[in-house]
Amino acid sequence: MPGSSRLPVSLRETFNARARSARGQQLAALNVDLLRNIVFVLFVLRWTRKLFYQLKGRGITGSVVEVYMYARRTLYGIFLRLPGVRTKVQTQVAETILKLEQKLVPSGPGVLRITSLPAEGWSEEEVRKKLNELAEMEHTRWEDGRVSGAVYHGGEELMRLQTEAFGKFTVANPIHPDVFPGVRKMEAEVVAMVLSLFNAPEGACGVTTSGGTESILMACLSARNKAYHERGVTEPEMILPETAHTAFRKACEYFKIKLHIVAVKAPSYKVHLPSVSRLINPNTVLLVGSAPNFPHGIIDDISGLSKLAYKKKIPLHVDCCLGSFIIPMLPKAGFDFEPFDFKLKGVTSISCDTHKYGFAPKGNSTVLYRSDVYRKYQYFISPDWSGGVYASPSIAGSRPGALIAGCWASLVKQGQNGYIDACHKIVGGMKKIEGAIRERPELSSDLKIIGRPLVSVVSFLSNTLDIYDIADGMNEKGWHLNALQSPPAIHVAVTLPIIAAVDQLIADLIEVVEDVKDQERKRIAEGKGAKGAIKGDTAALYGVAGSLPNKSVVVDLAKGFLDTLYKA
């Protein structure tokens, strides 16, 4: 066209290419900005959600207290790591551990330490002689009923029967049910018998485990896995009373479950249901109650927890490891009881130690489920291993069939009548101790029962005396009672061996309380104050533990104790 000008084709193409490139860059920049904004929004939503549930669960005041406690622990931990302080603390910890080692590890002339295999095997007589020496090493006399809990002895006759059962199934391993069909049958029957004690519905099931801790671990693992597979929960959380067994804390550490601890409040010392309800959120995989708890022997409000769990469609685990075969026998023995088992429709799993008041050999427990909907999530199955298809019901692979045989023999030997009789004796013994502390003026003026115990454990504290001085005084008289903290207290878990020693326990407790009071009166008269220097091990350990905002020193002492156990 006359008067018009056109760009050469090469220049036009270059211009268009540059324009397309600029538009592409602009679009890429927009996409990056959009992605950045999406990530930012998701980040804000995530932490807003966390903040919402934190404030819902703990409230503003509770959240501020948590932040304060965290800061206090952190700062005290930094203080303990300062060069001068750290050296002094490490020296004191080392001295304490050395004293512990001297107490626990035999030493001196004449002490045989076996640290390698004998060049030639010993004769049977030599082995028997050494076994007798080991059995007779100086120890707290549980045989005389001087140990709280620990030894759940069913009598000499039952022990002989258990030993015989061991002998028949020494090499048995339930991982090979075709090789040891008798063990498979006994294990299934043990589970069935325990289920029947806890009013299990049709379709209920369970497995045996090595002890209460494994039973609790399996219940927590099942709940976590169920929530992951059915609800897509990737950040699981668990809510439990502060008095629930520490195995639940172990499960949270092992299986990466966030832990929410709920206070138990006086005078009932039961879990506070409103606090539990506020802490529930979409990540909650399990609620927990105890029947009874280990520290105080108190049964939580399982009915209330059940209603809450059923309404929120969250599994509820009831820990009956300590209640064992005593708590289901309470109504049959004519004692007061509270509902706690599968009769409550919100209860989905129960742990019960057959090696406590079932009097089975140590290393026996059960975890029970309302249905296989829950149990299947604790199984481990590896279908593509080169060694073949592998499946195990719990943590262990190989398991001792001899222990299962000993458990089965104990249950069928005792029968319902045997366990009801044991319930009469054990709960009766607990009530005798409780009555003495509540009613005898020599004790009631200084000691106070915690809550309303119904099973085998009675716990007491003091508002006028140092309870750990009382614990150490009882230790000096040959008793091995359980010291507690938060609040400082002592508990007695009554067993069959303790029954014959209850009167002596009460008499010694009266004497020790009077002695502690007398010591305090003397110190006050001398102008030294009521509290004297720490003398006993219990007062030393728990006095330190209770005074430190950061427990790292106590952790170091506990590690040292565990290390000492493996020194030959």
TrEMBL record:
Source organism, top-level taxon: Eukaryota
The residues forming a coiled coil are none
Recall the GO molecular function terms of this protein's record. Answer: pyridoxal phosphate binding; sphinganine-1-phosphate aldolase activity; transferase activity
Quick check: keyword Nucleus in the entry?
A: no
What biological process terms from GO does the record include?
Answer: carboxylic acid metabolic process; sphingolipid catabolic process
Please state where this protein is localized.
Endoplasmic reticulum membrane
Where on the chain is N6-(pyridoxal phosphate)lysine found, per UniProt?
356
| Alphabetic keyword roster | Endoplasmic reticulum, Lipid metabolism, Lyase, Membrane, Pyridoxal phosphate, Sphingolipid metabolism, Transferase, Transmembrane, Transmembrane helix
As recorded in UniProt, its EC number(s) are: 4.1.2.27
Gene Ontology CC annotations of this record = endoplasmic reticulum membrane
The UniProt entry lists membrane topology as: Single-pass membrane protein
Q: Which family is this sequence assigned to?
A: Belongs to the group II decarboxylase family. Sphingosine-1-phosphate lyase subfamily.
Q: What name appears for this protein in its UniProt entry?
A: sphinganine-1-phosphate aldolase
Q: What is the lineage of its organism?
A: Eukaryota, Fungi, Dikarya, Ascomycota, Pezizomycotina
